Amino acid sequence: MNRPALRKYVNPQYLSDLPEGPCYDAGHLVTVNAGWRTRKPVLDSEACTGCYICYMNCPEGVIFKSDGKVDIDYDFCKGCGICGNGCPKDAIVMIREGEA
Ligand code: SF4
Ligand code: SF4
């Protein structure tokens, strides 16, 4: 799995310590999902064209590139659904946590 490596989080002290973009780079999270996620994204890799829109949209940076397409790191996904909303191929659907 091509998942981002965890990094040690250091509280920013100066403005220059903050990321330039709207979010930190992928892999900045330091704790796994604590079990409060109620819905989770499921990827249809047949429908996925590898456009990487979801990869760029995920606010947690937990979608990673995999063999020309994408995959999701469920350890850190918070279940917001932004990835599915922005997918032009409807290749990501949200299901209830625990559903098959
Ligand atoms: S936005 Fe949809 S089609 Fe594009 S990479 Fe993500 S899942 Fe695949
Ligand atoms: S549901 Fe939210 S956190 Fe999870 S992969 Fe999609 S955009 Fe990222």
Structure characteristics:
single chain, alpha+beta, Alpha-Beta Plaits, two-stranded antiparallel sheet, binds iron/sulfur cluster, 4Fe4S_Fe-S-bd, 4 iron, 4 sulfur cluster binding
Could you write a compact summary of the structure shown?
The protein is an alpha+beta fold. The protein contains 2 helices and 4 strands; from the N terminus they run βαββαβ.
Describe this structure in words.
Its cofactor is [4Fe-4S] cluster. This is Pyruvate ferredoxin oxidoreductase. This protein is α+β, with helices and mostly antiparallel strands and 100 residues long. 10% of the residues lie in helices and 18% in strands. The model has no long low-confidence stretch (mean pLDDT 84). The protein is globular, with a radius of gyration of 14 Å. The protein is built from two helices and four strands; from the N terminus they run E-H-E-E-H-E. It has a single domain, classed as Alpha-Beta Plaits (2-Layer Sandwich). The strands form two sheets. It has a two-stranded antiparallel ribbon. Strands 2-3 form a two-stranded antiparallel sheet. The site of one iron/sulfur cluster (SF4) has 13 residues, from helix 2. The site of one iron/sulfur cluster has 13 residues, from helix 2.
